[in-house]
Every structure is written in C-alpha cells, then in structure tokens.
Amino acid sequence: MSPRHWALALLLALPVLAAAQPQAEEPPLTVQATLDAGQQERYRRLIHELRCLVCQNQTIADSNAPLAQDLRSQVERQIAEGRSDDDIRHYMTARYGDFVLYKPPVQRNTVFLWAGPFLLLLGALAIALRQLLRRRNAAAITPAAPDPQALQKLLDEDRP
Amino acid sequence: MIPEIGHFLLIVALGVAVLQFLVPSWGVWKGDARAMAVGQSAAQVQFALVFLSYLCLTWAFVQKDFSVTYVAANSHSELPLMYRISAVWGAHEGSLLLWMLMLAGWTGAVSVFNRRLPADITATTLAVLGAISIGFLSFMLLTSNPFDRHFPVPADGKDLNPLLQDPGLIIHPPMLYMGYVGFSVAFAFAIAALVSGRLDGAWARWTRPWTTTAWLFLTMGITLGSWWAYHELGWGGWWFWDPVENASFMPWLVGTALIHSLAVTEKRGLLKSWTVLLAIIAFSLSLLGTFLVRSGVLVSVHAFATDPARGVYILGFLAVVLGSAFSLYAWRAPRLKSDGDLAFFSREGLLLLNNVFLVVAAAAVFLGTLYPLFVDALGMGKISVGPPYFNAVFIPLTAPLAVLLGLGMAVGWKRAKLKEVVRQLRWPAALAVLLAIVLPFLWVDGIGFAVFGGVLLGCWVLLTSVHDLWGRVRAKRSLLNGLSSVPRSVWGMTMAHIGLGVWVLGVAFVSLYSVERDVRLAAGESAELHGYQYFLRGVDPVRGPNYDADRGTVEVTRDGASITILHPEKRLYRAQQSVMTEAAVDESPIRDLYVALGEPFDNGDWSLRMYYKPAMQLVWWGGFIMFFGGILAASDRRYRLTKLAQAPVGADGKVGA
C-alpha cells in the first residue's frame, strides 16, 4: 500500500473522528428505577429473550400488550429481588412452557436445532473437500490439455 | 364491467400460458423450429393480457368499486389515491396478481432479450416459465379471484391494513416479488440446460445477468422491508428473524451463492451440476416463501392473508414443480461433466467454500424457521425459535464468508501462491486491524471482542475491495484511463462487496451499541439519553385523511443547542379502529435519534420510547450500494454481445481469451 492509500484512508476516517461522543447514562425515570447498571443490562437481555404469548411474533420488549407489560414488570421485580437469570427463565417456563423462550434451551427436542447447522457445515465441508481432492488428483494423473488462457498469460508475462 | 373484463383477460391468459407451455415443448421434442418460435409470441401476448387485467383491478380500486369483494376488503372511501393504487397488492388475491404480472414481465423480457440464443434453449426456457404461469393463473382463478363481486354492495370498504399505509410498503412488495419471481428465469434456464444436456460457459453467461437482476431486486426488497419495519413498527428494530423475513432471506442467500457459482461455471467450466442445483433451490425457496406467507402455516406479524385451503394448493404446486425439477436433475445431472482441475487455493476453490457457507447459512435459517412446526407436528412440544437463536447460529456461519471474500478477490483463477497473496493483502489486513481498534472508540466510545470482530470483518471487506479495484486501475497509464478500463461487471462486484462491508459495519455498531430507554413524561418535561435531552413539548390531536392521531412534539437538544424537532405519532385508523405507531427519526450517517410514542397515562402523561442508534443508516446504505452494484454487474456490455462471445467457447465449456 502506497502513501496515497494511507492519505485516502485517513480522509475517509475524518467524519468518524468528528463523531466521537462521550457516553454518560443517567438512571431512567420510570422504568427499572430500582435497578443498577448491571441489572438493567440483564433486564434488557431477558426481555428480548421472552415471547409475548398473546402477540403474533414479538418479544415482550417489543410489545405494548398488557401481558407484555406485566411480564416486563415481573422480570424487573425479580431482578430487583436478586433472582438469577436462570431463576427467572425457570419461573417463566413453569408458568408458560418452553414456548415463552425465544432461545430454546438445549434439551431432547432441540438437539437437532442447535447441532444441525454445525453438522451440516461439517458435512458440506467434507463434500467440498472430497471434491477438491478428487479434482486435484484427477488433474495430477491425466495431464490436462494446454489451456489457451494460461498460455496467453505466460506469453503476456514474458513480454518486457 | 371492468372487473369482468379483468377476470376474462386472466382466463385468456391461462389459455395462452397453456399454449406457451405445450407448443414449444412439442417443438423441442420434434425439432420443429416454427413450433419453438411460438413461445416468444405467446409470452408477449400473455404479458399484455396480465398487464391489462392488472390495470382493471387498479381501476376498480381507483374508482372505489366496493362491489368487488377484494376492493371492499382492502380499500376505503377516505383512503388516499396513492394507497388505493398500492392497495392492489395489499392482500392475498392482488399480491398474486402482482406476482403473476412480474412473472409475465420476466417471461416477456426473456422472449425479447434472448433472441440470439439457440432456439431450443429459448423454447424450453419459455415453456418452463409457461408451466409456472399455468400454476399461478389457475391458482388465482380457482381459489383467489381478485375480481369476485359480492352482494349487497357495502356502503364503504373495510380499509387497507394500516400497517401497509406507508411509502416504504408501496415499493417493498413489488421489489421483493421481482426478486422472488426473477429466480424463475434462472430456474427455467437450469431446466433448459438439463433438457438439452448443454451446459457450458455460454449457458452461464446467459444466465448470469438474469440471476443478478433477480438478486438486486430481492436485495432492494429486503432492505426496504427492513427500513419499513424500523419506521412503522415502532420497536426500533430492523430485522426480527420473523418467519416471513426469513422466507425472503433464504432465497437471497442461495441466490448470492448462485451468482458466485455461475462465475465459476462461466470462467472455468466447473461446478456445473452444483450451479444447476442452486438455481433449482433458489426458485424452490421463492415458492416456499410464497407458501409460508400465504398459507398461514406460520403465524407471524406479516402473514396478513391466511387461508389453509390455499396453502394446500401451493403445497401441491410446490410438490409438482420440485418433484419434476429434482427428478429431471437426478436423471440428467450426471451428464453434466465438469472438467478441469479444482485447486483449493484458487479463486474457484474459495468460491466453492463461499458456496458452502452461504448454503449452510440458508439451511440454518430454514431449520430455525421450520423447526417449531416440525416439533409441534410430531407432538414433541411447543417451542419458539427467535432472534437469540438465529444470532447465535448465523454469525459463526457467516463470519468466515467475509474473510473468504477478501482473500477470494486477491487470489487468481486456477492456482495461486499463498506467499504472493499474503504479500498483496498485508496492508489491507493491517489497516483493518488498526481501524477495528480505532473506529469503535471514535464512533461508540467503547471496545469489546464483538465490536472488534465485527468492525474488523467490515473493514477487511471494504479495504480488500478497494485494494482489488486499485490493483486493476494502477496497472494503467493514468487514473482516468484505468478507471474507465475497468469493466462494469467488476465495478458491480466491487460495489456489491463494498455494500456488504458498509452493512457489516452498520450492523456491528447498531446491534452492539444501541441505547434505549422508556420514560414517562408530562408535557414540558424532559429526559436524557446518551447526551441528548428530549423535551416533550406537547401531544396534540391531528386529523389525517383516514385516521386520527396524537402527534407528539419532541425537541432534541444537546449541550443546550437544538438538534431537531421530532413528531412521533400514534394513529387510530378510523375504518378498522386499529392503532399504529409512527416513529420519528432524526437520521444521520453517525447516529439515529429515534422516538416513538407509547401509551398515554390517565393523568395525561405519555410513555416515550427513545433510542440512540449509532450507524443505523449504514445498514440501509449497505443494501442500496449492493443494489447499485447489482445494476452495474447486470448491465455489463459483455452480456449483450452474446453472438460474438459464443464463438470462442469450446466444447469443453472453457471460455477462450
């Protein structure tokens, strides 16, 4: 990369420099007033993991349905009482079943859900690799006919 | 009278579609050139018929003809003209008519632009498109006629779903459908290749611009849908991993894989049967998307038209199309021999890996979307699969793609030397690492493993794309000379990759550093978020054309200086008595300030949801840049010079010179 590249990169980065901003959060006024910063973080994460059961396909964070509001305050209260995330998830699944969790736990009926994509990746990589090896060997055993493109390239390279 | 004409035109179009399927097929079978040529005129006649029929339905909407059941269900006397026109695709029947119009349009375009192709390829392609047309036209006529009348005629309509009364929703579905339906062309080409047994570099070259065009529309459609959800749903989110979003994302992922494998097939004559398979899968997923949305099998926010009986038809149609396509594939694909060697460390080797990751990512989305259905159907319980699952699975599957992308552009076809590539890429790599450390501090004042990784990948993609372009330009005499000598398809590739890099940057920042806050405010009170003060000046009633709204006035200041005045609204649509949130956003490349009105309290206070979203705009820009790159790539001159280009293609499928 030449100095010109660097100048260009710096130029591109300039508007970003102007965007540097201080980050200072004051505690919210109405919601989660009782929670400290770490607890608020947990609250945010949890309400984005729980399903609003009366809505079509929304988390309780995204819904204004009365049930969602109720569950949000439920989560807030339980965090304030010092219960752990798992306690709260257990409480929710005990009342509403696994359906309430948008991140299904690894258990018997979700094994393939969690393992599936990675098994597929391994399988696909294995097939691709086999293809690559076979093709390479095929080429090694039977010398390929001279390829006009490659010849042209060689000629081009040799040109002064 | 007009609706009856529209209905009649559809019936005639079905007849023409049958001709378009049968006559060219017979011609290909018998080798009869005149019969093969019928496909072209049939395709053009069919387009004219469907287009006129579409105008008839639009006319019924514009004229507020509530004697038409579909118009009465989706329009209202107070609905503004703009939304009356877009209400044509506001629900099931009209969406299908739009789908059909797109299909007829694509088919007509194939018949016009592919005159130079071998007659049997064109004929087979048009016959396949005719068969798809038969399926959709009879679906409409049998189960979902948009022109049905009803009696007694209601005094007024039930209004268009208020969710859809938004400028974003006017163009989102047509774009998305253009993409969905566009893959039918790649599909038809794939079938033509299987039937004729000819699949060479020329075939790939015919198929590429069509596939890229479908892809660019799908890209635009998804981006607009995301943009719409962000502004209209009022939750500050832009992607929900909702089943219907996934239904459009799966064909996008596979279509992206197809674009790349077509490049390998064109340049190297490799991956032939794989390319054909991808073309079949991309179209299958488009059909599946239609099925998922229309059947109501997945209940989601988007499934605004649900009817199981129709689902059964589409499922049957899907079974017939896929069954015959895959049978044909199983029978004929073994003949499509790819020759030439495939080295791991070569562009084609890396593109093969790109395909592996893209297709597995699509499979993961498929699994997550349909898994709850399977578990439920098997009686193994009811579970939900949502954003936390998709994020956990999707990111590890796609992050390697970004790494491969940068490498792939630096690695040449056939075989490359690792040392040479490392030498070339050492500066972009070093700069990407530097930026990944510096940018987060400047942009969001924080750093962590996740944001470092995201920004690193985004910058890597951006820098390697620019570096690749620079390498092509530098070799020339002057900058201008170099820039103008770069072919459009390369510009297109570079733009699409830059778009992806910009998108990754946006996603990394906005998903990791958004700040949100719910507050309760009375008029005159203010709340602080991320250094910005939000003053609620008041909430006033406003009367819109077909809704009544509470319109908030929120002034945003920073260090005492006024930044903007935002007007979030809470609308009550009179006809359906449904409440909609209209968020107000102050947009800039650096950050979005987002305010949505929540619920009023008894004493007149309001709950307000506020977001600070860094780099949100980059997500849309990324989509638009990719779209633009698609346009450049699809309009490259070399795709139009079919005649000239055909000559150097040898029997082995390799493209000379």
**Sheet having the most strands of chain B:** 6 strands, antiparallel
- Briefly note the structural class of the backbone of chain B: alpha+beta
Strand-and-helix sequence of chain B, N→C? HHHHHHHHHHHHHHHHHEEEEEEEEEEHH
Compute the number of strand runs of chain A. Answer: 0
Task: Kindly name the structural category of chain A.
Answer: mainly alpha
What multimeric state do the chains show? Answer: heterodimer
What is the CA-based Rg of chain A, rounded? Answer: 29 Å
Largest interface: A-B, 65 and 80 residues
**Beta fraction of the residues of chain B?**
5-15%
Low-confidence residue ranges of chain A: 1-30, 140-145
Helical stretch count of chain B?
19
Tell me which CATH architecture of the domain at 161-336 and 352-364 in chain B applies here: Up-down Bundle
Query: Per the principal axes of the C-alpha atoms, what is the gross shape of chain B?
Result: globular
Global mean pLDDT of chain A: 71
Quick structural overview:
The complex is a heterodimer of chains A (160) and B (657). Chain A is an all-alpha fold and 160 residues long.
How would you sum up this structure, described in words?
The complex is a heterodimer of chains A (160) and B (657). Chain A is mostly helical and 160 residues long. Chain A has helices at residues 3-18, 37-47, 66-80, 85-96, 111-141, 148-158. In chain A, helix 2 (37-47) runs antiparallel to helix 3. The radius of gyration of chain A is 29 Å and the shape is elongated. Chain A starts with a helix and ends with a helix. Mean pLDDT of chain A is 71; it is low at 1-30 and 140-145. Residues 300-305 and 643-657 of chain B have low confidence and may be disordered. Chain B has 657 residues and is an alpha+beta fold. Chain B has helices at residues 2-30, 33-62, 69-74, 81-86, 92-113, 119-143, 167-196, 201-232, 243-268, 272-295, 308-332, 347-377, 387-410, 418-444, 449-474, 479-485, 488-513, 616-634, 642-646; strands at residues 515-521, 526-529, 532-543, 547-558, 561-566, 569-573, 578-582, 584-587, 591-600, 606-614. In chain B, the strands form two sheets. In chain B, strands 2, 3, 4, 5, 6 and 7 form a six-stranded antiparallel beta sheet that branches. Chain B has a four-stranded antiparallel beta sheet with strand order 1-10-9-8, covered by helices on one side. Among the domains of chain B are: 1-160, Four Helix Bundle (Hemerythrin (Met), subunit A), CATH 1.20.120; 161-336 and 352-364, Up-down Bundle (Four Helix Bundle (Hemerythrin (Met), subunit A)), CATH 1.20.120; 515-616. Classes of the chains: A mainly alpha (160), B alpha+beta (657). At the A-B interface, helix 1, helix 5 and helix 6 of A face helix 12, helix 13, helix 14, helix 15 and strand 1 of B.
